[in-house]
Amino acid sequence: MKISANSIRAGNILVYESDLWVVTKTPEHTKPGKGGAYVQVEMKNLKAGTKVIERFSSSDYVERAQLEQRDLQFLYIEDDNLVLMDNETFEQILISQKILGDKLPFLTDNMVITVEFYEEVPIKAELPHTIVAEIAETDPVIKGSTVTSSYKPAILTNGIKVMVPSYLVTGEKIVIKTEDVSFVERAK
């Protein structure tokens, strides 16, 4: 699908020079005193991982990749791959663990993740926005601490470190945002 260079947004996946590129930053729109307006776009190659800054004329059109989104259920890890299942067709799909990057520790049994495919090749995977995790280790409660007091470090059972309110104790389940690993609330 062709889109105007002015319509490019951060997170878009573009087909450029027969490769897939993800737009990593919000594009800069510039109208110089002389010459035509242009859009400066920082992109990262999805295969090679190389970054490039490209200028497109405001009148240019670029190819936006048509991605197919599928919700898949995580079953288990086999070698360096995640084994996922399509809950509609019950087809099992192997996807590289690298697709999740530093979010891999958040993955739990039977979790449903959204995977984006380009021509049947998995490009990107997203976890749910929040997950419930258990505190494995944190400092004891400080006497007189209230809900509004400061935060303390805690280590979750998945090994992730998160800052939590001082009234929480080891063994409690909490809700955290997967995007920025921040505490939301006690799990209900």
Automatic annotation (TrEMBL):
Originating organism: Candidatus Trichorickettsia mobilis
Known pathway: Protein biosynthesis; polypeptide chain elongation
Keywords per UniProt: Cytoplasm, Elongation factor, Protein biosynthesis
Superkingdom of the source species: Bacteria
Pfam families: EFP (PF01132), EFP_N (PF08207), Elong-fact-P_C (PF09285)
CDD domains: S1_EF-P_repeat_1, S1_EF-P_repeat_2
Gene3D superfamilies registered for this protein in UniProt: 2.30.30.30, Nucleic acid-binding proteins (2.40.50.140)
InterPro entries reported in the protein's UniProt record: Elong-fact-P_C (IPR015365), NA-bd_OB-fold (IPR012340), Rib_uL2_dom2 (IPR014722), Transl_elong_fac_P/YeiP (IPR020599), Transl_elong_KOW-like (IPR013185), Transl_elong_P/YeiP_cen (IPR001059), Transl_elong_P/YeiP_CS (IPR013852), Transl_elongation_fac_P (IPR011768)
Signal peptide (residue range): none
Protein name: Elongation factor P
Domain Translation elongation factor P/YeiP central: 69-123
Domain spans labelled Elongation factor P C-terminal: 131-186
Family: Belongs to the elongation factor P family.
Annotated compartments: Cytoplasm
Gene Ontology molecular functions: translation elongation factor activity
Function: Involved in peptide bond synthesis. Stimulates efficient translation and peptide-bond synthesis on native or reconstituted 70S ribosomes in vitro. Probably functions indirectly by altering the affinity of the ribosome for aminoacyl-tRNA, thus increasing their reactivity as acceptors for peptidyl transferase.
